[in-house]
Design brief:
There is one protein chain. The protein is an alpha+beta fold and 487 residues long. 60% of the residues lie in helices and 10% in strands. The chain is built from ten helices and four strands; from the N terminus they run H-H-H-H-E-E-H-H-H-H-E-E-H-H. The chain starts with a helix and ends in a 24-residue tail after the last helix.
């Protein structure tokens, strides 16, 4: 009994030693100190950012509905259905899921059937050195035992890659939604500015008519007529420039909704879009809501799992194999019971010398983990910067809008007084033109400030991850606590 046991112990000693060392193949833990932490509150946050929003908006995630503009709602819905960037991101997600399925398949038993016919010669043939035929048909079985966690960690990495692609798809949808909203709001701002400039053109034309009459009557010099004509032509040029800018924005909007620019058109309309107040909430929600941060986190965890895969390359591959079927030198006897054959076995393979390939693989995977960790930290820092940027922009724009409103009121009053005094001959035409230029400039600046408020509001929603308030999306990834991927 002892003589039989001793050879078995000797044969399985390397396998037992490998099993003892299997724990070394687990992925390294990520130091929580290396992960960014959310600040307690936004620096720019104050009471103005706590206004509640309709609960239906939070329920379906349609944040753009807070602007209460049916045209915007329709454009966003069209973009979500037809935008090419979203379709590309969806295809990338499908690829990642297919790769995950293929990776998981490596952990399952492999069963196949086959048949072959060969003609061979030599001393081992039944013909005693002559040529002979050999026919075989049967099934084969193989199953790699994932003793050291290489296959499970590869599947985990592939699953995390798929999660990252899913987060990138959500991020692409958010970017497209934001781009559509910003383009549409820019279009409406241009419509309002164009209407203002064209109204000013009409006023200049009336002034030119009056000036020409006074010139014909000999009350003023030709210089006054030339000045009004100059102002009229310059303002008409501004109107045409606004037309050009509107056409460019409209064409960009066509691409976003998946239409050819030649077939897309949006009629000039009144700017009645509501300017909502978006509550910033607490910074920690940004880490769980923003899809780009979610994607960076999943990529970091995937890189962590791949370090374990690279470490597992140092351990043996163990597989169970089996085969069964028929083999015969005569095709007619192939499926007779006497021609049956079978075999079972176990395979253990371990490279001894590979020129440093496995060591280089571990170093490469570790470097990828370091890069992914740094990328995640950078993404978090940029996210908080984005929110702070837009909060400060909205705060300052609100003050600027108030100041600009006062400037518009004063400029409008100055124009009215100058027009009355000019018609009475108390001031020169130059004074009237200066007053009108000042009013036009201030009104346009007021529109531009208003447009900037809308743009900053959309950018804030995008910086917050497309929502606000409590996180209630069950599909959101877990927080930074998921930093260890076991083997």
């Amino acid at each position: 009994m002892t003589s039989l046991t001793q050879p078995l112990r000797t044969a399985f000693a390397p396998l037992l030693a490998a099993l003892v060392l299997a724990g070394c193949a687990t992925a390294p833990q990520i130091d929580p100190a290396a992960l960014p932490t959310a600040p307690a509150a936004f620096k720019e946050g104050d009471g103005r950012w706590t206004q509640a929003v309709p609960p239906t908006v939070q329920a379906d995630g349609a944040w753009w509905k807070t602007f209460s503009d049916p045209v915007l709602d329709g454009l966003v819905e069209r973009a979500l259905e037809r935008n090419n960037s979203i379709q590309i991101a969806a295809a990338r997600l499908a690829q990642a899921r297919a790769l995950l399925q293929a990776t998981d398949a490596q952990r399952a038993p492999q069963i196949g059937i086959g048949a072959d016919a060969t003609r061979q010669g030599g001393a081992i043939t039944p013909a005693g050195g002559g040529a002979g035929n050999l026919f075989r048909a049967g099934a084969s079985f193989s199953w790699e035992l994932d003793v050291f966690g290489r296959l499970s960690q590869a599947s985990q990495a592939a699953a995390l890659d798929a999660d990252s692609r899913e987060a990138l798809l959500r991020n692409t949808r958010l970017l497209v939604q934001a781009d559509v909203a910003r383009s549409y709001l820019a279009l409406r701002a241009l419509d309002a500015e164009r209407a203002l400039v064209r109204e000013t053109v009409g006023a200049y034309r009336d002034t030119l008519t009056l000036t020409e009459r006074r010139f014909e009557a000999g009350d003023i010099a030709e210089l006054d007529v030339a000045r009004v004509r100059t102002e009229l032509a310059a303002t008409e040029s501004d109107a045409l420039a606004l037309d050009r800018r509107r056409a460019e924005v409209e064409h960009a909007l066509a691409v976003l909704v998946g239409d050819p620019a030649s077939n897309f058109g949006l009629e000039a309309g009144e700017w009645t879009t509501v300017l909502p107040v978006i509550p910033a909430g607490v910074p920690s929600t940004v880490l769980t809501r923003r899809p780009d941060i979610d994607a960076a986190r999943q990529s970091m965890l995937a890189a962590q799992a791949r370090v374990g895969v690279a470490q597992a390359a140092w351990f043996p591959d163990i597989a169970l194999t089996g085969s069964g079927g028929y083999a015969s030198t005569d095709l007619g006897d192939l499926f007779k019971w006497s021609a049956r054959s079978w075999g079972i076995g176990a395979l253990l393979s371990l490279p001894i010398f590979d020129g440093g390939r496995r060591e280089a693989g571990v170093r490469n995977a570790s470097a990828e983990l370091d890069a992914a960790l740094a990328g995640y930290r950078e993404q978090v820092l940029v996210a908080f910067k984005d929110v702070e940027d837009q909060l400060s922009a909205l705060r300052l724009l609100a003050d600027q809008s108030e100041a600009q409103s006062r400037a518009v009121a004063s400029a409008s009053r100055a124009t009215v007084l100058s027009d009355v005094r000019y018609r009475s001959g108390l001031v020169s035409q130059l004074d009237l033109l200066d007053a009108r230029r000042s009013e036009l400039r201030n009104r346009r600046e007021a529109l531009q400030v208003r447009a900037a408020q809308y743009q900053a509001t959309v950018a804030l929603v995008r910086a917050l991850g497309g929502g606000w308030g409590a996180v209630d999306d069950g599909k959101r990834a877990e927080g930074p606590a998921r930093v260890h991927a076991g083997g």
